Amino acid sequence: MNNLFSVKDKIVFISGGSRGIGEMIAAGFLANGAKVYISSRKAEACDATAQRLQQEYGGTCVSIPADLSTLPGIEAAVAAFSAKEEKLDVLINNAGASWGAPLEEFPELGWDKVMDVNVKGVFFLTQKMLPRLEAAATAEDPSRVINVGSIDGIKTPAFDTFSYGPSKAAVHHLTRNLAAHLTRRNIICNAIAPGPFPTWMLSTGVGGGGDTDIDWDAIGQHNPRGRVGTPEDIAGLAIFLSSRAGAYTVGEVITCDGGAVACS
Prior knowledge:
The protein is an alpha/beta fold. It has a seven-stranded parallel sheet, with helices on both faces. Helix 1 links the parallel strand 1 and strand 2.
């Protein structure tokens, strides 16, 4: 029963790791002794976050900027990672996009961009990382794939983001599909469905214009727990799924939402 939640010395790759939920998860793994690679489209932001996280939490945090909505971008990121590491213990598919517009005005671009980032990117990054995941996997300590979905893929979204909810529902089902194919290869796949967290994406939906320095306490009052999520909430769940404690949990979509789905 010792070290049930240890992720010490594990190698972790987090897409969309330069801000928001991805940054929170990266901080949690670094603080608990893992070596973390983060990737995002904007190189300057990705580099700055990696440097800041490493200074704050110690350990090693490496930036691999890439556009993970395209196959060439995914292949470039995997090649950069593979040049540094022979194995990957934990892949966290967190990169995500959203688009808001009224139903009658919702554009094709808002559909294609969201589906490319949220669904296509998850599948092909997992596919291209399989050799590294298999290199780390054993029956006693499987490699892990954690896909970040959303409660909007479970219940009707509050905003006019018509491609976002369907894309996250697809991520949830893709998680079960991947689990069916990978579990016997000692790669465990699960998904997390976050609710409200203090992120750039949620800020754009609640009128903050992307500013994360807003009154999150007021926004959290609409949640059954009376608050928005914290880094400890989301990182704790990701660490559970990546540790010995989560080694028998397979193909699940676990909400991390303060009761938003259960109480709706």
